[in-house]
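Query structure, 177 tokens:
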């Protein structure tokens, strides 16, 4: 079998006796023979009937009404697209505006809470009571000055006349048993 092969180019190319096929190993490629290109045979053109040619020409021809319809449809599509882009732009602007207002609201709430805490910390109720009693002469009410009353109608009372001694201002529509 070894006698059937010829060695050429340092073991890179082998050829069998009686065969024109070459095997190339490595990165060296053999150049193709000049002028050798396969050409496909030309196909004969079919004869097209007169009716088929007429149908093709009619299919390619557009009348003016169809062109006007396509133009109007294209213009409407462009108008819809432009309005859609404008709407998206407005939505984006309003979203940014809402975000800015939410940040401003959060800052104002934080500032308000800080000021409220500062006011609450600055108010000392013991100091106010001491000043009211010592400097302004206020005293606690004695038990005989306190009048308790029942108001079954509402939780809010406006006093237009004296509170009765029994403490009942109004009777509900229900009779008591």
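Result returned for the query:
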């Amino acid at each position: 079998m070894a006698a059937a092969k010829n060695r050429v180019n340092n073991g890179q190319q082998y050829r069998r006796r009686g065969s024109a096929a070459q095997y190339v190993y490595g990165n060296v490629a053999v150049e193709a023979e000049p002028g050798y290109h396969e050409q496909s045979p030309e196909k004969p053109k079919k004869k097209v009937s007169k009716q088929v040619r007429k149908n093709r020409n009619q299919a390619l021809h557009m009348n003016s009404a169809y062109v006007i319809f396509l133009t109007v449809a294209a213009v409407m599509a462009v108008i819809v697209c432009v309005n859609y882009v404008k709407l998206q732009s407005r939505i984006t602007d309003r979203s940014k505006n809402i975000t800015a207002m939410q940040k401003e609201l959060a800052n104002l709430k934080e500032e308000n809470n800080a000021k409220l805490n500062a006011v609450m910390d600055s108010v000392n109720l013991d100091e106010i009571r001491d000043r009211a009693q010592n400097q302004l002469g206020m005293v606690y009410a004695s038990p005989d000055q306190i009048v308790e009353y029942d108001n079954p109608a509402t939780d809010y009372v406006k006093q237009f006349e004296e509170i009765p001694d029994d403490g009942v201002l109004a009777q509900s529509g229900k009779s008591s048993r």
